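Z., the sequence and structure:
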Amino acid sequence: PQPQPQPHHNIIKERGQIIQQRLSFRQSAKELKDKHIIFDPEAERNTYRDVKAILKRKLSQRSSVKELKEKKILIFGEYNSVYETHSGDDYDRTNDKPWLNLSSRDKCIIKDELNHFKENEMIVHPSSRCFTRFHD
């Protein structure tokens, strides 16, 4: 005997139950907002305004160029030179990277030489010696 096809409303009911079951595992909108997965546009605007206000306040508290010049913190050169150069199409401006072609033996030799220089020849104040970085 062949199974009788289910009536249409039973199929819809079964699918509805499956969907309800799957939806029950989903997190609520509040949980998603708490985890920063979905955003509240109003809260985003408020955060943007707050950050903007903080930055504006910090910028207003900075010393002006005039004050920095008076304190001799900011010094501009007296003369500015402007030179014409060739366009980028006239010559290749990319730089070579010779360190990419070094063998690992060459790199070790360079590191050893640097370490020797730092340890024996470089003049360092005794209290700053602990900050000297040696290469492994």
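The radius of gyration is 34 Å. The chain has a mean pLDDT of 85.

Let me know what you think.
H.
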